[in-house]
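User: Hi! I have a protein structure encoded as tokens and I'd like to know what sequence might fold into it. I'm fairly new to this, so please keep things simple.
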């Protein structure tokens, strides 16, 4: 047995024993039936997670987001070490360029930066180049950046930091009036070397810095760099999280935020510095997310929107400074594996590792039984602490983007099924606006729930701000990132506790979000019944109990679903040359179908559509091609930039290419006949139907070798995401794509 899994198994067995003892004690003290499944279910969660981990081991024994990290130290402090670690953390969000710059006390500025270029290097390769070529970057002050190209190509020149004269900057955001400002600066004689909007900001700050130096304005002398930055930003229209360095001032940085978050980490002792020789030196950190510096300090300050500040080793200098602004992270919420494991052993890559970690991630989302007590009561600390505010909410808006939106849509269906609220709507955060909130109900009965894995997605932050400030509606967050901007903004929510995701695609965080939303649905239903006993009905009670039972079985169900891996490998080999695919489902299976298609797009660079099985036959059915037409089109497809018609045809014939592939989630529920009818129509038109089902008999006449998942009540459909993830993963592998860093992918959910 693999040591990592052995230790987890022993750990969970230990807690299973403790929970069993607790459950027994509770039953004896309350005259509760000790045979009740819910009572023993809490202890069973730990056991199922352990068994799922062992199953995972057995299977595998065969086997647009930019980021900023900056620091101001003093003396012998080596900023480069922190900056490289920061780049390593930020790369999980995806990047196509990276770089760092340091300035020493003798005013020497050293910059190293690389873009992936036409070779499309992975984030790991780009950062390895930065590490290899930045040996000369010495000094206690520095800043680093990971870039996802928006203005300009993925070249070395366009990578950040961007320098102009004595000024260097790193920037998150978009400058809307960059073209106009560029023309004005060119009129002043400035020559641009990059295509980026960030260079416009760098040259604008440099322009005002030189102008202030010539004027020698006494009022600007103490913070000349800050004054120049403020003057430049008054000319800018857009969003920015900005850090500015000046060669003349080697002991400070200037920071500014407007629509893009920056966080300042403070410590008077340097926290857990990288070497013992620096522990007595004060250090101040700046980052676009807390995770960058949380290993070194838990104390931080959010830079306010529109604020400009000066950062020194002793701490920040902010105009609206107050000790009340200082916040501290609760260390008990920090994920155990945040800094653990720098390689995905025993798995070949992080994506597969995180797919196989899903049973444990679900257990963590359930608090290993702590959030679903033996008596069936839902315990959510954040919601319980704000119960008086949320008990009146009857109308809820769920909002998310990409995978988080799919999770929100599954949560919407669960909330509707158990009648947790009067109305629930799941909306894409990209399009959510003021008019989407109900205007014919009292404000105190409205609520908003924003779902975001990172807690940093700008669309998610915009929705939370819209709800809290413009609508005056309470807002909660479902996020995997403790201390994220979203979590700090809403101040109440449900943490997913999925553990850190290093792959560029979301796997375990998606299922943890659905699990957390299921708990939230049960909490709202529970609160509703406690406030008004007349709302309790036999039908609703049956639905509630079914959902609780499904949650208890969910870790084991996912462990069993992982057994479909071998079948997914076979299918991936057969689908290697396909260029389009559909994934269909209905009811609870529809958001899972959309998530599955999303994974095909992300991982395998395959055009895929996730749709309702009922709506598919109205228009999309026309896109289904029989084998002859499909094979004829495939023969002219581009392969690595070269046409290989003859070779292509031989390969596709050898593999017996079928018609257009359609993955059908066909479950034994109220939609089975409708979904099966859709499958038969696809089959009759020559399409290749791949069935995922919890009842193999339903696949008769559609798929002779269906993928079978365990039946698990209202969460059965959620289990279908496992074979979809595995199929997308294996398809990426046979196509020669690195699943950890797919093409054009950034992680910002």
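Assistant: Happy to help. Inverse folding works backwards from shape to sequence: for each of the 749 positions I chose a residue that suits the local structure. Here it is:
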């Amino acid at each position: 047995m693999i040591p990592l899994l052995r230790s987890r198994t022993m750990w969970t067995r230990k807690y299973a024993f403790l929970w069993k003892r607790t459950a027994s004690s509770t039953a004896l003290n309350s005259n509760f039936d000790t045979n009740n499944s819910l009572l023993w279910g809490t202890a069973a969660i730990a056991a199922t997670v352990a068994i799922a981990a062992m199953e995972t081991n057995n299977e595998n024994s065969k086997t647009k987001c930019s980021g900023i990290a900056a620091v101001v130290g003093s003396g012998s402090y080596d900023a480069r070490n922190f900056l490289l670690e920061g780049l390593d953390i930020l790369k999980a969000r995806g990047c196509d360029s990276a770089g760092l710059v340091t300035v020493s006390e003798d005013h020497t500025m050293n910059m190293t930066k690389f873009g992936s270029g036409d070779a499309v290097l992975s984030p790991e390769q780009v950062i390895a180049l930065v590490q290899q070529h930045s040996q000369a970057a010495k000094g206690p002050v520095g800043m680093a950046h990971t870039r996802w190209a928006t203005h300009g190509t993925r070249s070395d020149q366009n990578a950040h930091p961007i320098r102009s004269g004595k000024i260097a900057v790193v920037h998150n955001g978009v400058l809307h009036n960059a073209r106009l400002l560029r023309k004005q600066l060119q009129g002043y004689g400035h020559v641009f070397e990059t295509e980026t909007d960030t260079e416009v900001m760098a040259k604008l700050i440099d322009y005002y810095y030189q102008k202030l130096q010539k004027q020698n304005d006494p009022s600007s002398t103490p913070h000349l760099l800050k004054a120049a930055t403020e003057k430049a930003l008054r000319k800018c229209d857009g969003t920015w999280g900005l850090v500015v360095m000046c060669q003349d001032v080697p002991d400070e940085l200037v920071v500014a935020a407007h629509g893009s978050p920056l966080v300042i980490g403070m410590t008077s002792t340097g926290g857990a510095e990288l070497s013992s020789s620096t522990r007595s030196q004060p250090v101040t950190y700046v980052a676009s997310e807390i995770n960058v510096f949380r290993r070194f300090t838990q104390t931080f300050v959010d830079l306010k929107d529109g604020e400009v500040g000066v950062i020194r080793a002793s701490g920040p200098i902010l105009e609206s400074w107050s000790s009340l602004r200082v916040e501290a992270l609760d260390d008990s919420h920090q994920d155990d594996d945040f800094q653990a494991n720098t390689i995905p052993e025993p798995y070949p890559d992080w994506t597969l590792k995180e797919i196989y970690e899903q049973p444990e991630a679900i257990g963590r989302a359930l608090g290993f039984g702590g959030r679903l007590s033996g008596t069936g009561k839902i315990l959510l600390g954040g919601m319980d602490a704000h119960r008086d505010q949320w008990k009146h909410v009857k109308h809820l808006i769920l909002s998310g983007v990409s995978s988080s939106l799919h999770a929100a849509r599954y949560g919407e269906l669960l909330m509707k099924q158990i009648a947790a609220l009067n109305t629930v709507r799941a909306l894409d955060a990209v399009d959510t606006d003021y008019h989407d909130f109900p205007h014919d109900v009292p404000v105190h009965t409205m609520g908003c729930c924003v779902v975001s894995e990172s807690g940093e997605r700008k669309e998610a932050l915009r929705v939370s701000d819209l709800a809290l400030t413009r609508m005056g509606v309470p807002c909660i967050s479902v996020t995997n990132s403790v201390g994220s901007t979203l979590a700090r903004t809403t101040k109440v929510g449900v943490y997913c506790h999925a553990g850190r995701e290093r792959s560029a695609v979301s796997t375990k965080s998606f299922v943890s979000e659905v699990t957390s939303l299921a708990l939230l649905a049960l909490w709202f239903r529970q609160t509703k019944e406690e406030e008004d006993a007349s709302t309790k009905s036999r039908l609703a009670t049956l639905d509630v109990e079914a959902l609780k039972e499904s949650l208890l079985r969910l870790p084991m169900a996912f462990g069993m679903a992982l057994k479909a891996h071998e079948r997914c490998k076979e299918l991936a080999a057969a689908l290697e040359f396909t260029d389009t695919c559909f994934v269909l489902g209905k009811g609870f299976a529809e958001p899972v179908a959309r998530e599955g298609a999303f994974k095909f797009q992300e991982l395998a660079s395959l055009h895929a559509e996730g749709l309702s099985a009922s709506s598919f036959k109205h228009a999309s059915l026309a896109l289904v091609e029989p084998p002859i037409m499909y094979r004829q089109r495939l023969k002219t497809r581009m392969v690595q930039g070269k046409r290989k018609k003859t070779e292509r045809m031989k390969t596709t014939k050898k593999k017996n290419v079928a018609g257009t592939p359609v993955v059908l989630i066909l479950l034994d529920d109220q939609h089975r006949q409708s979904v099966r009818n859709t499958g038969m129509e696809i089959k009759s038109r020559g399409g290749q139907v791949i069935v995922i089902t919890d009842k193999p008999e339903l696949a008769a006449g559609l798929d002779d070798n269906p993928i079978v998942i365990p039946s698990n009540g209202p969460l059965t459909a959620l289990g279908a995401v496992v074979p979809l993830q595995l199929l997308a993963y294996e398809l990426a592998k046979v196509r020669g794509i690195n699943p950890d860093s797919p093409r054009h992918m950034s992680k910002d959910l």
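A useful reference point when you look it over: The longest strand covers residues 249-258. Feel free to ask if any position seems puzzling.
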